[in-house]
Design goal:
The chain is mostly helical. It has 43 helices and no strands. It is extended. It comes from Fraxinus pennsylvanica.
Length: 775
């Protein structure tokens, strides 16, 4: 039967449920075929192509066509040959010829034409088309062409050929392994349902795994609860997926419930379950569950492989189950496995955490370990205890067995230097040099620490000069130690040189050490130098504290370089360094000094919103700036926050606030502050007195003052005329200021007090007399 080529124009489409964004993009590197047939270049020589046509004319048969197609690397030529054969009389394509051309198209990523040929093969009812489709799926999966696999599956499901459940499971497994989208896995599952095949537990495990990967946790748990309705019983793999996925999403309690369910239904865990789940519970520090599973594995007939044993030993040692770890180690030896170096290190670390140093060295010697790293780990742990005798004995024990290396010597030298035993370190170093040892950068780093800790910073600098001449770099600890030592001795110039050298080599300085360097540099007046160091810190990866920026900003403020200060603020914002109280205080003082009222108030409000409060000096600076422009009322909304912190406001700030608010017409608010001030026992200053008394006419005040000063008494008429003023002032004064002895002792400060007392003006006289009698 002749092939109808016209039908190739109508390609079946896979539903939108399947991801198709990559169907045209993939390219087969092996065949080096372009992915778009429209742009195919005929890479074969025309004479060669004609020779193949001539060969097929003389011997056209499916087997010969397959042979020619296999020997034709160019896709365009292969398609031409295939179509030429289709037009020949008495020739019919077979499933094998279709397989060859479909595979070539799929491997080139030409899924549209590939799908068309698949449909042609099915429509032609070629013998064995089902097996060809299965072979195509297998080939595409092996070559990671999963989008092409889904197209072939779709065509297969529309045909009369029904694949087994194993085919669907294989495709789902491949999709999960390649981390494809959930909709692709769901597509395969739906195709299986459409074909009338019931899922098995492997299918459901793939579906559960995919649901968890897609973040659909509740849906996955619902599917698990409905397994029995689909005739499936959960197995070890099911619980492995459920437990590990729930733990990964911090739903630990649910994972433990599922583990109990696993035990209740009698599901026997397999090796994969133990390998994956035991470390999870160890990482969660749920040692009880981890050990229960470990003992179950030991009690079963399951024997973990070498890698699994090493992983379990690591977990056991981390949580100090040394007995179980060493037993498992012995089992590894009995099985003929050679443990890796990391396994020895795990066990030695476990012994060291328990301070069982003798047991650790016995373990190494009994196992005839001759590798240096486990011994170095043990030596370092002994040195950490600060026990010189034990460390010395340990080192020479290693030395006697010819196990020591340069790293071993450096560990011991570092130990001596960190304990300020620089003289012992130098003597030991001399002996080691005579034996075999060549000092390196780690040696010099240790010696620099030793000299810094005994105050020999000049020797430390000389050592650093050698380090620099050899183009070495210091380790982070010795680097920080040298910088801090130089800063403490106010040798910031040399400290800056050390920092510059290390920064150029990409070494970051500890934040605390860099903070000290900047503070000392600014304190010495070299603010510009500190700014340059800050720029180097950014490129070397040194993380800066907020206090580091503050030191530079304060230095710039003192120099009057406000523009540079604002640039520093911008840098803080760019690197995400949050402002603190000191930052805001510096900014407020800077803006106030420039008489920038709006900016001062903005920074003040931001400071309060962040939960910070200004110091007294900053507040005074702000108030004086605001008062100069009669803008004190701008911070009225913030007064409650200020007055709630008694340590913030002192008598000076109270006077400035009262003065400013009264002068700006906010008299009620000024009076409230006056009450609070008097409750603290503070007396308003002369300026505030004058302002308050200025609420009556100047003439009235002068009459009253003259009457008191000249006669010592006050005419009743005058007092009565002044009554509104004094009643207003005294009512506010006596409410909180119950120490009126202060007022009455200094009549020049408050002359109206005696006038009120002499004239017996009600109701203030009675209140004053009562207050005086109480105190």
């Amino acid at each position: 039967m002749a092939v109808k080529l016209s039908s190739l124009r109508f390609c079946w489409r896979i539903p939108k449920l399947v991801s198709s964004n990559a169907y045209i993009s993939s390219i087969c590197c092996e065949n080096k075929i372009q992915s778009h047939p429209e742009t195919y270049q005929n890479q074969s020589d025309s004479s060669e192509f004609e020779a193949k046509i001539q060969f097929l004319k003389n011997k056209l048969h499916p087997d010969s066509l397959v042979s020619v197609l296999d020997s034709t690397p160019d896709l365009n030529s292969s398609i031409k040959l295939f179509k030429w054969a289709s037009l020949q009389n008495r020739f019919n394509h077979t499933a094998d010829t279709y397989y060859r051309i479909i595979l070539k198209l799929g491997m080139a990523g030409n899924v549209e034409e590939m799908e068309g040929f698949c449909n042609e093969m099915v429509n032609d009812k070629c013998s064995g088309f089902g097996e060809s489709l299965l072979a195509l799926i297998d080939s595409f999966i092996k070559n990671h062409r999963l989008n092409e696999t889904l197209r072939v599956l779709y065509v297969m499901n529309l045909s009369s050929f029904k694949p087994s459940i194993g085919v669907f499971n294989t495709i789902m497994g491949a999709l999960l392994e390649e981390k494809k989208e959930f909709k692709d896995v769901l597509f395969v599952y739906k195709e299986m349902v459409k074909s009338g095949i019931l899922p098995d537990i492997d299918t459901m495990n793939y579906l559960l795994d995919s649901l968890f990967e897609a973040g659909r946790v509740d849906t996955a748990l619902d599917q698990y609860r409905r397994l029995h309705k689909k005739g499936c019983n959960p197995n070890s793999r099911t619980f492995e997926i459920l437990i590990s996925s729930l733990v990964a999403r911090n739903r630990v309690e649910e994972s433990i419930i599922l583990l109990d369910e696993m035990f209740q239904i009698g599901c026997e865990p397999d090796l994969s379950f133990y390998i994956r789940v035991i470390p999870i519970f160890y990482r969660l520090q749920n040692i009880e569950v981890g050990m229960k599973l470990f003992r179950m594995m030991r009690a079963s007939n399951i024997s973990p492989d070498s890698a699994t044993c090493a992983a379990l030993i690591n977990c056991l040692c981390e949580y100090l189950h040394l007995d179980d770890a060493t037993k498992l180690f012995e089992e590894m030896i009995d099985c003929g496995w050679s443990p890796e170096e990391e396994t020895f290190l795990d066990i030695v670390n476990g012994f060291c955490k328990l301070n069982k140093f003798t047991e650790a060295i016995m373990f190494l010697e009994e196992k005839n370990v001759i590798d240096t790293p486990p011994y170095n780990t043990l030596l370092e742990a002994v040195c950490t205890t600060g026990n010189f005798s034990m460390a010395n004995s340990m080192f020479y024990r290693m030395f006697g067995r010819n196990i020591t290396e340069a790293s071993s010597c450096n560990i011991f030298i570092r130990f001596l230097c960190e304990n300020a035993a620089i003289s012992k370190a130098l003597k030991f170093l001399c002996r080691m040099i005579v034996s075999f040892f060549v000092p390196d950068s780690a040696t010099y780093s240790a010696l620099i620490i030793g000299n810094c800790r005994v105050g020999k910073f000049e020797d430390a600098l000389q050592l650093f000069s050698t380090v620099r001449s050899k183009c070495w770099v210091l380790d982070s600890v010795s680097y920080a130690e040298l910088v801090e030592c130089l800063c403490q001795r106010e040798n910031t110039r040399e400290a800056a040189k050390v920092f510059c050298y290390m920064s150029r080599n990409g070494c970051a300085l500890q934040s605390t050490s860099f903070d000290k360097l900047i503070k000392e540099t600014c304190a010495s007046g070299k603010v510009d130098g500190a700014t340059r160091l800050l720029s180097m810190a950014y490129y070397s990866g040194t993380v800066c504290f907020c206090s580091t920026y503050n030191s530079i900003m304060q230095g710039l403020f003192k120099l009057g370089h406000i523009d540079d200060l604002l640039v520093m603020v911008s840098k803080m914002m760019i690197v995400g360094c949050a402002f603190n109280e000191e930052t805001y205080c510096t900014l407020i003082q800077s803006m106030s000094a420039l008489n920038q009222v709006a900016d001062s108030v903005s920074f003040f409000n931001l400071m309060l919103e962040e939960g910070f409060l200004p110091c007294s000096d900053t507040l005074v600076c702000l108030l004086r700036c605001l008062a100069k422009y009669s803008q004190v009322h701008l911070i009225l909304s913030s007064l409650d926050k200020l007055t709630s912190k008694p340590e913030i406001l002192d008598s000076v700030t109270y006077n400035l606030l009262i003065n400013g608010l009264w002068g700006e017409g906010y008299k009620n608010e000024a009076k409230q502050l006056l009450d609070l001030m008097l409750e603290k026992g503070w007396v308003p200053d002369a300026t505030t007195h004058a302002l308050l008394m200025g609420s009556v006419s100047k003439e009235e005040f002068e009459i009253q003052k003259s009457a008191y000063e000249n006669n010592g008494t006050c005419d009743e008429h005058v007092v009565k005329e002044a009554d509104p003023l004094w009643q207003d002032i005294m009512q506010h004064y006596f409410k909180g200021a119950w120490k009126f002895k202060v007022l009455l002792k200094d009549y020049s400060m408050f002359p109206g007090a005696k006038a009120v007392l002499d004239a017996e003006i009600p109701p203030i006289h009675g209140a004053l007399i009562q207050c005086m009698s109480e105190h």
